[in-house]
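S1.2 Input.
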Amino acid sequence: MEERGERSRGFEIPSNRERKEGFFLVLWTKYTGASLVLRIFVGLVIGALLGLSVPSWTGIGILGKAFVGTLKAIAPVLVAVLVTAAIAKAGGGLGPRFRTVITEYMLSTFLAALCAVAGSFLFPVTLDFANEAEGSAPGALADVFANLLSNMVANPVQSITSANYIGILFWAVVMGLALKLKASNATINVVHDLAEAVSLCVKWIIQFAPFGIMGLVFTSVSENGLDVFSTYGQLLLLLVGCMLFNTLVFNPFISFITMRRNPYPLLFTCLKESGLNAFFTRSSAANIPINLTLCKKLGLDEDFYSVSIPLGATINMNGAAVTITAMTLAVANTVGVEVSFASAVVLCVIATLAACGTSGVAGGSLLLIPMACSFFGIGNDIAMQAVAIGFIIGVVQDSVETAVNSSCDVFFTATADYYSNMQKKHGTISEIRRNGGFSEVRGYGGTRVRE
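S1.3 Output.
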């Protein structure tokens, strides 16, 4: 009787349902507490093993489709509310940072195209045309800019539903400025709270990344195997080599010139936490939520990165510039068109501008190859056969392209943000030199990622 009395006063034995809920809560806490990169690596290995051993279990691939589909669904809404809230709440001082990051984006894209020209001249590649790809490609550079303008002024609701990030950015900036001028603080706080709620949804989605990566790897391995490496090995080496050289040499050089600090700790962090996910999703748009989360962990200014990251997913296309340039020169080599160095430099400019119009989806850069080929008088029928080859090797080429594109969005955003903070504390580079150099400047070289 006394024991029952104690239970009635609060010492009740948990029910089976409560015990199950407690077990799943502990399991979820341990799962989310483990390193996300480690969990993704485990999912990668399991997906590859399943793809090689049981390729007929196609149901596993649904996990990958669901994960990418969820990210693509939430990304337009996230960008719209984050940019609107950022502009509405923004103070002064964002202008110089945007000038810095846009300059870095465009310079990196041009250097990537130049790297592809050098690689193609040193290691010329020819293609074996067999199939013609289906699809519509822009016929001239003017068409690319016409598409950009039409996308910018598209219906804002339609832009969100169709993931038109040019239109989303344009209307979000307009709406943010309008709120900044006319809305009360309470209204702006509501928009900010909505942005925080959507960001929380993204965090929940990212926790399931290991399962999505497992499904994506399973699909790639079960459908393509390892044949792609042997059939188009030389072309793949050229494309991937140029992308990695630009990412590991030119991009850190741009960052070093800006900051005068060792850029590699930041670069490797971006490649690990952003590039790895982008490699498997093969979509810059789908990787926007992951990049925004990484920027927050790096301690960057939300008002800045909430705009620069979606902007980078649209115009920072160094991997796409490599693909457009190298594939175009490979087509020229195949059909016997001689390309002078001056023409190749002009091609770099064309590829840089065209890459800014690349859609943020898998294979988006390939359909711009015919436009670049038209510069050398190469017909659309021949160029589209190169596009077909691009889709064949896309399991590797497009994955690496997206990884370097998306990770560099964070890399250059962080560089611009830290450079701005350094200027506020220590003055301009010339002033720092007059005051004794960079020995006392604390830049991103010592920045730690907050878990």
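S1.4 Remarks. The chain has 21 helices and no strands.
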